[in-house]
Write a structure and sequence with these properties.
With about 550 residues, the protein is an alpha/beta fold. Strands 7-6-5-11-12 form a five-stranded parallel beta sheet. It has a four-stranded antiparallel beta sheet with strand order 1-2-4-3. The protein has a three-stranded antiparallel beta sheet with strand order 8-9-10. The model has no long low-confidence stretch (mean pLDDT about 95). Helix content is about 50%, strand content about 10%. Among the domains are: about 100 residues, 2-Layer Sandwich (Gyrase A, domain 2); about 120 residues, Isoleucyl-tRNA Synthetase, Domain 1.
């Protein structure tokens, strides 16, 4: 992989320039960038520009001197056969141009590692919990939840592939005001079904058709046929029934979407009153709580929050913040080094207080990572589809999957950085043309399978080592793209965002189509070249499959 070569070049640069400095601590960070202009090589380093002020020489003079020793270090380290040349570009950049041998090594590594190509030990077994979706069980999953589900699942896959020990968790808020409103909504619809002429629906109630459907099922399952029977049921029964019913719906939707959680945690169990009180006692012992006007406050301003927060109101009821702190205490007690929360943009203001709580619990600030995933808007025929959970104007995740399919749904929800609002074009997602990016990528994978089958018909096999004939620009561009796979995964881990992988897969498919549209792979007249080109596209197929597997999208063999 190019990441290995990149690391080797960086080490040679550091070893080469060390003699120019009085103290190794003066050496600036060694950074290798990929130039946008391919005429500037595969890697570029600005070490001479960074060192000019320290060494009091011009960047061009330093770059020329650095190149002489760096080139020698490359030869001594065994990388010389992979570097075609090293030169200097104004105003002092050092550029590295790779030779064919470097690209051939990439192909050999792909065949050696197969499904593990791109896997790394970056995480070194660090325990990470990713909590995502965690939608209140008050209705089917929305499009916003769907995007968070796709991001969380894909990020977990990438982190696990990169050497982290990952636990994916869904936190069920099965208590609180919204659950009470759900119960009252079901109860009100049940009264309507039984013909109560004075039945009134809560002003803040959930109005979707699914509430009426659940009310009807509740009456049938409990054999209730009169208002007196209905009134004899405790209000908690309606809330409990609603939670159980909707959690079954949510779990099915997520399973259909290809999202598998390792743990399902419930607020009623993990953040019960006993657990909350134990957590509050811990914070009080540390001196972070105080009483004011009959309420219990957390002095979160000690940890950078803009104001202190109430944990227990004067009437003895907890605020929603108190069980959240207890839940996060539970996370760390389970041994997680880092906990990742994936939230929607409406929770952005909640970050400082939770960060403060985590520090008060004795954890370092970076033990909590909150990722804000911006909203998604569905478009149909060029017009946005309006949605409101409470009013019942609602398109669920299941409906999106039914309309465009699971593969397109997952891929389209990942097609922008989590920091950017996402426009989801339902019509584009259904197209079976190159305009549709997921179709374009899957077609590349299927197309390669077809070519390999054709090669087998004439007993042509892919070479797995000893390459020497792949010298065309499109061939080397494809090999170079294959070699960047591990770097892309590293970027995803560093940025806590999966968009780079989605973008990369489209780039890899484009590089393949550009190559194949120009050159024949299977040609009986040139078997040696055909064998190497066949290896090139088989390696492409392996990387496409590895990437699609991490994204959670299928890699079809025919389309």
């Amino acid at each position: 992989m190019l990441s290995n070569l990149k690391q080797g070049i960086s080490e040679c640069i550091e070893a080469g320039v060390r003699g120019f400095f009085h103290d190794a601590g003066q050496i600036p960070p060694i950074i290798l960038d990929i130039p946008q202009d391919k005429n500037h090589g595969e890697f570029s380093c600005n070490i001479a520009l960074q060192s000019a002020r320290i060494l009091k020489k011009s960047p061009m003079e330093l770059a020329t001197a650095f190149v002489a020793v760096i080139s020698r270090k490359l030869q001594e380290s065994g990388f010389g056969d992979r570097i075609e040349r090293v030169d200097v570009k104004h105003p002092g950049f050092i550029n590295f141009y790779l030779g064919s041998e470097a690209f051939y090594k990439i192909l050999e590594q792909v065949f050696k590692e197969g499904e593990d190509y791109g896997r790394s030990s970056l995480g070194r077994g660090k325990n990470i919990q990713i909590e995502f979706v965690s939608a209140n069980p008050t209705g089917p999953l929305s499009v916003a939840h769907a995007r968070q589900a796709a991001v969380g699942d894909c990020l977990g896959n990438i982190l696990r592939f990169s050497g982290f020990n990952v636990t994916k968790e869904y936190y069920v808020n099965d208590e609180g005001n919204q659950i009470n409103i759900l119960g009252r909504s079901i109860q009100a619809r049940a009264r309507e079904i039984l013909g109560d002429p004075q039945a009134s629906f809560p002003e803040e109630g959930y109005q979707g058709d699914y509430i009426r459907d659940m009310a009807r099922v509740f009456l049938q399952q409990n054999g209730i046929s009169s208002l007196s029977d209905l009134d004899s049921r405790p209000r908690e029964d309606f809330s409990r029934f609603g939670v159980e019913t909707l959690m079954a719906v949510i779990q099915k939707e997520l399973k259909d979407f290809g999202v598998q959680f390792d743990t399902w945690s419930y607020q009623s169990r993990i953040a019960s009153s006993a657990h909350v009180e134990k957590t509050l006692a811990f914070l009080e012992e540390k001196g972070f709580l105080y009483k004011k006007e009959g309420a219990l406050w957390f002095s979160s301003t000690q940890f950078g929050d803009d104001k202190d927060r109430v944990l227990r109101k004067s009437d003895g009821a907890y605020t929603y913040f108190a069980p959240d702190i207890a839940y996060h205490q539970n996370k760390f007690l389970r041994g997680f080094d880092t906990v990742v929360n994936i939230w929607g943009p409406d929770h952005h203001g909640y970050i400082p207080r939770l960060t403060a709580a985590v520090e008060a619990l004795g954890q370092p600030p970076d033990a909590l990572k909150v990722l804000i995933v911006q909203l998604a808007t569905l478009y149909r025929n060029g017009q946005p589809v309006s949605m409101s959970t409470r009013r019942g104007q609602y398109i669920s995740l299941q409906e999106v999957m039914d309309e465009v399919g699971v593969d397109a749904a997952r891929f389209f929800f990942l097609m922008r950085s989590i920091k950017a609002h996402l426009d989801f074009d339902l019509e584009l997602a259904k197209k079976e043309t190159p305009e549709n990016p997921v179709y374009y990528i899957q077609y590349a994978h299927a197309r390669i399978h077809s070519i390999v089958a054709k090669a087998l018909d004439i007993n042509l096999e892919a070479r797995t080592q000893g390459f020497r004939a792949l010298e065309q620009e499109e061939e080397q561009a494809l090999m170079k793209t294959i070699g960047r796979f591990a770097d892309i995964l590293r970027i995803c881990c560093q940025q806590w965002d999966v968009f780079a992988l989605v973008s990369y897969l489209l780039e890899l498919a484009t590089a393949f189509h550009r190559f194949y549209d120009k050159y024949r792979v299977v040609d009986v007249e040139v078997p040696e070249l055909s064998s190497e080109r066949l290896a090139l596209i088989v390696a492409t197929r392996i990387v496409l499959a590895n990437g699609l597997r991490l994204v959670g999208v299928s890699a079809p063999t025919r389309m």
